[in-house]
Amino acid sequence: MYKSVLFLILHVKQAAMKWLLFVLLGLALFSCKKKKYIAYDNKNYKKARVCRESNAADSAFYYYNLAKNDYLKINDSLGIAKSLVNMAMIQTNKGDFYGGIESSLEANKYLKKEKDSTVRSTLATNYNNIALAFHFLKSFDKSFDFYFKALTYIENEDDKLLCYNNIGDVLVTQGNFKLAKKYLQKALLTNNSTNYSKALNNLAKAKYLDDENYNPLPELYQALEIRESNKDELGKNSSFETLSEYYAKKDKSLSLSFAKKMFETAVNTKRPSDQILALQKIIILDPQNYLTNFQKFISINSDLQTERNKAKNQFAFVRYDLEGRRAENEILKSNSLKKNFGLLTLSTLLIGGGFWYRKRKIRLQQEKELEVKNTQLKMSKKVHDVVANGIYQVMTKIENQESFDKEKALDELEFVYEKSRDISYDKLDQMGSPKDCKEKISNLIASFKNDDTDTYTVGNEEEIWTTMPQSHFEEVYQVIRELLVNMKKHSQASRVVLKFERSENQVEIHYTDNGIGIPGDIIHKNGLTNTVSRIAAIKGAIIFDTKTEKGLKINISFPVS
């Protein structure tokens, strides 16, 4: 189990607790040259800075976008770029990683005069933001490349040392511990105690991961002591994470203690991503309270994904809305220059432009609302399939077992937990062999057999699943589980039969039970909505026979190629 814990920690350690480590470099680079850049008095840019310093990120993004448009009017390329870089950093910080990369790449178009010191510092900040976004997206090779690009434009020695730390951290994530140690040794040369503690903590981690006999505790506790002295709450959380990870194989109770400290600090600093990271450790280390902690994890993760989706839609809407206004203003300006050609032409253009803008704005709003709704429906569907049905299946097994195997039940709950972690990444299971598929279906149906209900499987042979796409099998598996869960909850059936047939590239599944049946007018209730939509998604058909004298018959058919 601890191997899976270590893999889990290494896999998710790029969570948002790390963001400040990288963003600090961006902010330092972005501010070190700003006094040499003299621009006209852009009031919107000033408002944006005030909002950002007050942690009003949404308002700051809005005013930076206005400032960018102001700079566009006077062809101030550096002003445009600085506005876009600030917008990109806000997007990345809010979880809109692809949006942040897009804004950064747009900013690069206006940063061509690389001999200018302000342009160079802005490029360093911009590449640092792209590297950070790719880090969160787990594209570590790209993250590594862009940190090196940022390094080529950094002139301040302290900023270079902080960048070495960032590069070392990525190398640790990639498992290149020896090279990571070289960069982290350089990062230790800093005179900044906060940055020193970061490099020291990361270096100790690289050393013990490279050599299991190495004792990193003196360095880890020294880094924690510095952070406590500096009242560096985010830094303390990083130390708690590393110590919990180190003790995971050596002292479970101590590892759990540090994980709980990490969660408590994350709550106090209002860092939901850190709370999720801490709960992932606590769930594994404290199996007695598995369900309670797992419910916390699901709730916090759901809220975080909703906030990130909201941020993506909000940032996109701000940019589209302001672009629409700018287009309308351009039309008005053009029309005013041509007003001598006739009042009728001017009126027509104004009315047409206004109608076009309002229609476009409504359409964009509707598209964004639909996108949010679809995202929420998709997430709800996945949570229902993976978590609700998964846990219900485990509960059914426990209910039907004469002797309760605690370790096996925990393993199955841990599998449900592992599946739930992949919800936001749309990750599919690896396709098994036809034999694996056959056994998986048979085990699923058998798990619903108990003293009150007998389940029978007919025709579930390997040939049924040969050449079937992975996506089809996943949908069919979820459909069968949904039917069995619905049967267990509502049908009162004592006998359930699933018959499988295949004719060339067409598969048919016949479900029959002797329960109380289901009225035709509520087929799309009782959790069967997902069943119908899943079969439709694989271009299949599902027929509910509600006219049977007793029980329920369902015929499912779909192509496999």
From TrEMBL:
Record GO terms (molecular function): kinase activity
SMART domains, per the entry: TPR (SM00028)
Residues annotated as transmembrane: 341-358
PROSITE patterns registered for this protein in UniProt: PROKAR_LIPOPROTEIN
Entry keyword set: Kinase, Membrane, Transferase, Transmembrane, Transmembrane helix, Two-component regulatory system
InterPro entries: HATPase_C_sf (IPR036890), HATPase_dom (IPR003594), Sensor_HK_TwoCompSys (IPR050482), TPR-like_helical_dom_sf (IPR011990), TPR_rpt (IPR019734)
Pfam families xrefs: HATPase_c, TPR_12
Source domain of life: Bacteria
BP-aspect Gene Ontology terms: phosphorelay signal transduction system
Gene3D superfamilies registered for this protein in UniProt: Histidine kinase-like ATPase, C-terminal domain (3.30.565.10), Tetratricopeptide repeat domain (1.25.40.10)
Histidine kinase/HSP90-like ATPase domain sequence ranges: 475-556
Protein name (database record): Histidine kinase/HSP90-like ATPase domain-containing protein
